[in-house]
Write a structure and sequence with these properties.
By secondary structure, the protein is mainly α. It has one domain. The chain is built from nine helices and no strands. Helix 2 packs antiparallel against helix 9 and helix 5 packs antiparallel against helix 9. The radius of gyration is 18 Å and the shape is globular.
C-alpha cells in the first residue's frame, strides 16, 4: 500500500502526460471508430509493454543511458518513420473498397500501435526524463523495492487504460451517428499523426 500523498502526486503528474493530446490519443480515436473501447485497452497494453520496463530502468538509476542524445535522435528517427508508415497503412485501409458507411480499424494491431507510438515518441521519452524522473525519485524516497515500484506504476498506468478506452469508446458511439463524417475525421486525425511523424523526423536534424 502506498501513502495517499504519494498516490495523489502520481495521479496528478500522470494526468499531465496521459490526458494531453498526442499520437496515442489520436490513434485511439481512429481505431476506436471500428472497435470501440477494446481498441483503446489493447493500445494501452502495448503502451505498457514499453513503459513498464522503462519505469523499472529509471527506478534502478539508468536514466543517464536513456537520456543520451544519440538515443533520443534514434528514437525520433524511428518514431517519425513509424508514424508515417502507420498513417499510410491507415489511409489505405480507409480508402479501400469497403463500404464507406462501415468503419474499419487500421490494419496494424492495436497492441503494436500502442508499443510503437510509445517507444518511438521522443516527447514521451522527454516527459519521463523530466516529470517522470522526479516522480520516480519521489517514489524511491519511500521504498526502492520492486514490489513498491510495481504498485506505484499501477497507480500511474490505470489512467492510460481509462483514457484510451474512453476515447476509443466515444469515437465509436459518437461516430455511429455520422459514419461518412467520421471517415473524414479519421482521415484528418491520421494526417495529424503523419504531421507528428514529420515533426519527429525534423528533430533529428536540429
Amino acid at each position: 500500500m502506498i501513502p495517499l500523498s504519494l498516490a495523489m502526486e502520481i495521479i496528478g503528474v500522470t494526468a499531465s502526460g496521459a490526458l494531453s493530446p498526442g499520437p496515442l490519443t489520436f490513434a485511439a480515436i481512429v481505431g476506436g471508430r471500428a472497435s470501440g473501447a477494446k481498441y483503446g485497452l489493447l493500445e494501452a497494453l502495448g503502451h505498457t509493454a514499453f513503459e513498464l520496463p522503462l519505469f523499472v530502468l529509471l527506478g534502478l538509476g539508468c536514466s543517464a543511458i536513456v537520456a543520451g542524445s544519440s538515443t533520443l535522435k534514434l528514437v525520433s528517427a524511428l518514431g517519425g518513420i513509424s508514424l508515417l508508415a502507420y498513417a499510410v497503412l491507415t489511409l489505405r485501409s480507409l480508402f479501400s473498397e469497403a463500404s464507406p458507411t462501415k468503419p474499419r480499424a487500421p490494419s496494424v494491431h492495436p497492441i503494436a500501435v500502442g508499443f510503437m507510438l510509445t517507444a518511438f515518441n521522443p516527447f514521451f521519452i522527454a516527459w519521463w526524463l523530466s516529470a517522470g524522473v522526479k516522480l520516480v525519485t519521489d517514489i524511491l524516497t519511500y521504498s526502492s523495492g520492486l514490489t513498491f515500484l510495481l504498485v506505484s506504476y499501477a497507480t500511474h498506468v490505470w489512467m492510460d487504460y481509462a483514457w484510451l478506452a474512453a476515447v476509443a469508446h466515444l469515437a465509436r458511439t459518437g461516430g455511429a451517428k455520422l459514419p461518412r463524417g467520421m471517415t473524414l475525421v479519421q482521415v484528418a486525425l491520421t494526417l495529424i499523426l503523419a504531421y507528428y511523424g514529420l515533426v519527429f523526423l525534423s528533430s533529428v536534424f536540429t
